[in-house]
Structures are given as C-alpha cells and as structure tokens.
Give the backbone structure.
Amino acid sequence: MSTEAISVGIVMIEDDEGHARLIERNIRRAGVNNPITPFTNGTEALAYLLGPNGSGEVSAGRHLLILLDLNLPDMTGIEILEKVKSNPHTRRTPVVVLTTTDDSREIQRCYDLGANVYITKPVNYESFAHAIRQLGLFFSVMQVPETA
C-alpha cells in the first residue's frame, strides 16, 4: 500500500496585522511550512471555508487547520466556530482559538463548541508550538494511505 502526501493548509483569521505576523513567525519557528491563507474578517473567512452557497462542500476535499481570533470587526470568532463546527464538511477541521480573552467561561464555551486548543495572546511561543505539534502539523506534510 503506497502513501500519498497530503498538504494541510492553515487558515488564519486575525484582524490585527501585528498579531498575524507574530503568529506566522511562531508557526515557521515551530518548523511548520504549510501554506497560510490569512483573513482579517469573518465574512471573507467563512466565504472561503463554506463557499459562496454556504454549504461547506468547497472544503470537503481540503485538509485545513483554522487559527481563529475571537475579536473580529464584523462578527465574533464564536460565531465562526459555531458555523464551522455545525457544518458536516468542516466540523472535523481542527480549530485553534488565539485571543486576548482569558475568561474561563469563554474558554469553556469555545471547547464546548468544538475548539481543539485555546491559546491566550500574547502567544507564548512554547505553548503555541506544542499545540501545533499536538494537532499533527509539526511536520509540514502528513502521510495518509492512498485509497484503493
């Protein structure tokens, strides 16, 4: 049985350019070279993830990781998380919440909605790199068995 390399794309939803640059630098320092698609608002990010018709079918064949800020100019990250995790085509997509909020109720709400990791900004490099590694993205390519 041969294996086929599957590249995982990173979708970064972050409206603060300084934070976005810092996050990308930390991702690269962790040895992850996957392509990063940045968005500064939820509307454009959801259009990318769920497609123009909102069905999510556009993401059915994609292998993605979402880095999500909760405080966005047009909607909350919670709304995006709810939409991603309630869609059959995107619900298994790992979501790392990166936000300045360290309120325990908000953290619990994110986990209840399906977030995989919650990291408080400013991002601690070691905890961020550890979270990325735990999601299996420390290596820039994942190997999956080829379907017969």
Observations:
- Residues 17-29 form the longest helix (13 residues).
- Helices lie at 17-29, 42-50, 77-86, 104-113, 125-134.
- The beta strands are 3-7, 9-13, 36-39, 64-68, 95-99, 117-120, 141-145.
- The chain has five helices and seven strands.
